[in-house]
Amino acid sequence: MKAKRLAIGVLLAVMGLGAGSGQWRQVDQIMREKLGLAQKILEAVVTSDWVALETSSRDLERLVDDPRWAVLKFPEYARHSAEFSKAIQKLHAAAARRDLEATPDAYVAVTLQCVACHRYLARARIADLPQQP
Predict the structure, then answer these.
(1) Domain boundaries, the chain
(2) In this predicted model, what pLDDT tens digit does every residue of 78-92 receive, in sequence order?
(3) For the whole prediction, is pTM greater than 0.85?
(4) How far apart are the first and last CA of the chain?
């Protein structure tokens, strides 16, 4: 239930931060792709499927480099995006080393970076709401 509220908050945040309908479609599409890759990565981490983990983490790195990823032009979003990218690179490196200890921690770091950005977008949306008298 908490995840559902967070997703709704992110949706409202992105929409309220000035993303036009075309921008919103791009954000929605790329976030769905990100979620699909994150699910594949979790499965690969849990099953120690190193090939799938390397492939999916590389695909996630490419997704962050996709021009659709940067459709939102906010400095704080760019900062969060850069931190997310660093976390993905660490995950990919841990997967390439077949590091059973570092890989789950790296996956958690990727997830936490994702959540931090979504929280930022939700707070930014709340801050932009008109104040009630």
Answers:
(1) 21-127
(2) 899 999 999 999 999
(3) no
(4) 31
Estimate the crossing angle of helix 2-16 against helix 102-128, to 10 degrees: 50
* Burial of 55 per CB tally in 10 Å (0-12, 13-18, 19+): middle
> In 17-131, where does DSSP find H-type helix?
21-47, 50-65, 75-96, 102-128
- For residue 124, the number of C-alpha atoms closer than 13 Å in the C-beta half-sphere is 20
> Residue 37 carries which side chain, given as an amino acid letter?
L
Contact 103, 53 (CB under 8 A): yes
CATH 1.20.120.10 fits 21-127, yes or no: yes
- Nearby residues of 107 by Cβ (< 8 Å), 6 or more positions away: 41, 42, 45, 91
| Close Cβ partners of 33 (under 8 Å, ≥ 6 residues apart) | 63
